[in-house]
Write a structure and sequence with these properties.
It is built from seven helices and eleven strands. It is α/β, with parallel strands linked by helices and about 230 residues long.
């Protein structure tokens, strides 16, 4: 289906010591360049919209040109929260888009085949997100004491992209704005209005670059993915 992706990279990178992680080198490109290339290679992706800090937009546009990205149609500044940033990006997508995908700019190792699989699931269920089963036992804790041990078989680590039918996602945005809700996860927008979201299993290499050691891990994973 005709899918527009909003790539969000307007954060402050506080855990990277203020260094903008999306503009760090990764392989032969920058992080954001590798991220864009994954969506460029997807047949179902018709356009890429970038949400970023205004000062970073020229560098992102230059990287898109250097990386051969032809699907980039707009770059727009972010908002005060992630949800506001996503909404800014969604306002730039084509009216012909049937599905809206939202992806973290700092997840450069997402595989095109997994993006396509999530798009297919979203077209069936209305929404889908990439994710992987948790490997460890998870505890809920209050005041330093364990209060519960959720069954591991039902727990997943949520990744991106998160993909939704356009009408469903817009309904979720309207609901959040009407009720003054601010979510950090796009699935919550759809969950809040009773929509179904499929958990599309991806893989553990789709990491989010958050701390300095993550970029070193990403370098290793990128070489493995490229067979080097």
């Amino acid at each position: 289906m005709n899918t527009s992706v909003v790539i969000v990279c307007a954060g402050n990178s506080t855990r990277m010591g203020g260094v903008n992680k999306i503009l760090l080198p990764l392989g032969e490109r920058l992080v954001i360049g590798v991220t864009m290339q994954a969506f460029q290679m997807c047949e179902s992706i018709s356009e890429i919209v970038i949400v970023a800090r205004e000062d970073d937009i020229p560098a992102i546009q230059a990287e898109a040109k250097a990386a051969g990205i032809t699907k980039l149609t707009a770059c727009t500044p972010g908002g005060a929260t992630r949800q506001e940033s996503v909404i800014n990006g969604v306002r730039k997508i084509s009216p012909e888009a049937e599905l809206v995908a939202v992806h973290d700019g700092a997840r450069p190792l997402v595989k095109p085949e997994h993006i396509e699989r999530a798009i297919k699931d979203a077209s069936v269920f209305g929404g889908a997100t990439l994710g992987v089963p948790v490997k460890d036992t998870i505890k809920t804790v209050e005041d330093g004491l364990i209060t519960d041990t959720p069954p591991r078989k039902s727990l997943y680590i949520t990744q991106t992209p998160q993909i939704f039918k356009r009408s469903l996602y817009f309904e979720g945005i309207d609901f959040a704005l009407e009720h003054g809700l601010d979510f950090t996860d796009d699935c919550q927008l759809v969950e809040a209005i009773g929509g179904k979201v499929c958990m599309t299993v991806g893989d553990y290499t789709n990491i989010k670059i958050t701390t300095p050691e993550d970029i070193r891990i990403a370098e290793v994973l990128l070489k493995l993915n490229n067979g080097k």
